[in-house]
Amino acid sequence: MAPGEQFVRLSFRVPRCLQESFCAELWSEGSLGLQILPAGADRDRIDCYFAMVSDPPSTLGESWADRGVECLSRELVEDRDWLAEYRRSATPILLGRRFVVDPREPRSAERVSRDRISLRVPARRAFGIGAHESTRLAVALLEELGPQGKRVLDVGSGSGILSFVCLALGAELVVALDIDAEAVLCSRANGALNGLAPLLVVAAVEAIRADPLFDVAAVNISPHHILRHIGSITALVRGSGTLVYSGALRTQEGEVRELLSELAFDVVDRRREGDWIALRAVKGSSG
């Protein structure tokens, strides 16, 4: 990240009963991170951050105004290590049935768990540490599927957490794909911490030769950013292979299901946590 880089920070006052659903919308609009602070007996202040290149729409939050959401400010802020304090005070995060994620500084040598697979993923920017609902849903579906001996494509790999889960569960090969070079560098560093080595690629999915090379494709990205590429992703999945898709809100489920049906993928499992859903779909005979 370049020194002095700027971000857009939007601040809202939100009724506490709407906090979860409003935060879900902020994530779906591309927020890099959220901070939630008490703002009265039944309200919270939510600060959300966006990259300058994905400047959030000026209308963000307006549709919530009649339910009591107030936009307090919109301002530019200088970059700093926002997560340094979090890493110092963080505690391990349970993930799925078999994993625990340690988001602290890597110098910590404390044994995290005796009965779970430990993944060291220090909190860096917005690349993911397993705390978000969409990541937990994706891991639950991957555990249920069982990637042992399979070839896996992780699209939008971020910190690499889904890739590490698949490798730890015995995947034959994992290709971790992201268009953000910094995310791939972060994933490489995290892989070294865990002794896990996915094949890391900085590219859009269309850069991969259009052959059905993979048994599983794992995608944890909002529909707004990925649905136009989903056909390129599913084309890389072998016959009877599986797509694990997470990152959609409940209100977007119909759109996702319709597109998967058009691509001859049949939804065989669905998970939900709060306002988020994840789907496991299998490639049909006509796919």
Question: Would you kindly provide a written description of the structure presented here, covering whatever features stand out?
Answer:
The chain is α/β, with parallel strands linked by helices and 287 residues long. The protein has two domains: 6-78, ACT domain (Alpha-Beta Plaits); 130-283, Rossmann fold (3-Layer(aba) Sandwich), CATH 3.40.50. Helices cover 24% and strands 34% of the residues. The protein has eight helices and 14 strands. The chain has a seven-stranded mixed beta sheet with strand order 10-9-8-11-12-14-13, sandwiched between helices. Strands 2-3-1-4 form a four-stranded antiparallel beta sheet, covered by helices on one side. Strands 5-6-7 form a three-stranded mixed beta sheet. Strand 2 (33-38) and strand 3 form a beta hairpin. The chain starts with 5 loop residues before the first strand and ends with a strand. The mean pLDDT is 87.
Write a concise keyword list for the protein shown above.
34% strand; Alpha-Beta Plaits; 287 residues; 8 helices; globular; 14 strands; 4-stranded antiparallel beta sheet; Rossmann fold; 7-stranded mixed beta sheet; 24% helix; 2 domains; alpha/beta
Structural class of the helices, strands and pairings? alpha/beta
For CATH, the homologous superfamily of the largest domain is named as Vaccinia Virus protein VP39
Total strand segments: 14
Beta-strand proportion: 25-35%
Flag low-confidence runs. Answer: none
Q: Which CATH C-level class of the largest domain is it?
A: Alpha Beta
